[in-house]
Amino acid sequence: MNTTDALLAYVLRLGDTALVTGQRMIERVTGEPELEEELANANFALDYVGQARLFYAYAGELEGEGRGEDDFAYLRDSQAFRNLLIAEQPNGHFGDCIVRQFLFESFYVLQLEALAACGDRRLADIAARGVKEIRYHLRHATQWLVRLGDGTEESHRRVAGSLERYWRYTAEFFDGDDVDDVMRDAFGGPDLASLEPRWRETVAGGLREAMLSVPEDEAAQTGSRRGLHTEHLGYLVAEMQHLHRAHPGARW
Amino acid sequence: MSKNGWPLYEVFIRTKSGLSHRHAGSVHAADDQMALDAARDTYTRRMEGVSLWVVRSDRIVASDPAENSAFFEPAEDKIYRHPTFYEIPDGVENL
Description:
With 252 residues, chain A is mainly α. Chain A has helices at 3-27, 35-63, 69-74, 85-88, 94-116, 121-149, 153-167, 178-187, 192-209, 232-246.
């Protein structure tokens, strides 16, 4: 695989994960338990959509075929999306969202930090900007994880269930393929093998503080790099794209 | 937990270095860290601040409006407490 193709594929993966994560958070708008959480969630959702736009705009330039942000977001079928599986998982209850974001963002911060130092200047700039946002998201999610895990008997039981629910989607963070290899070798991008122990350390620390146990690694589900998604992505993409497809080029 | 169970916090924002913190509003939160995050998410979305303080509203000691006459009115006729009351003597350069 040549380096430009690998870079394009990698940037699209980042864009897809950011967009799908943002879309899941947008689904919760008006549904948060407190006004203050409502604002936080909406801010976070827009941070992700903003990151997706930067990734897609760059992908369009790398591809050089005239496609832009909207083409990638709204005019590709769900089979073409390469977002991480954890991003497309349904929201569930508040604790589910906190655990999902905690697990993913613990990884995403490390990934963006590594990318901020990579050899592709444009991607490094996008990552450096994004990591500031995600560090705050992670702080927010971690605090809630501790409040819920070390809270009441019910809140503990429920986030322990959330952890069981999402853990199986974390293995694919580190299940790299040839695209990841090219990013590491040709661009000085993230070395997944060295990121994994750091991720485990971060997660174990958060879980310990939240009085939760690190789950067993069994029945991992992977495949997003090859376009193998869970059943949930199709519904998310259909809802997200409906307006644009019904009214192509519609503007406010 | 219902919002009624969460204490109120007052939010103070310093808009730029050198200025003092000013009261911006309030948030409900279950603990201090949540209050700080909620203040950040609610009141500094448009680059309003470089520093945030939050303090539980019930920790603020406030003057009693019923005592305003005793508290504030005695200052009304003390015009000599204002620097403008004094004439600057000729020849004084720094006062």
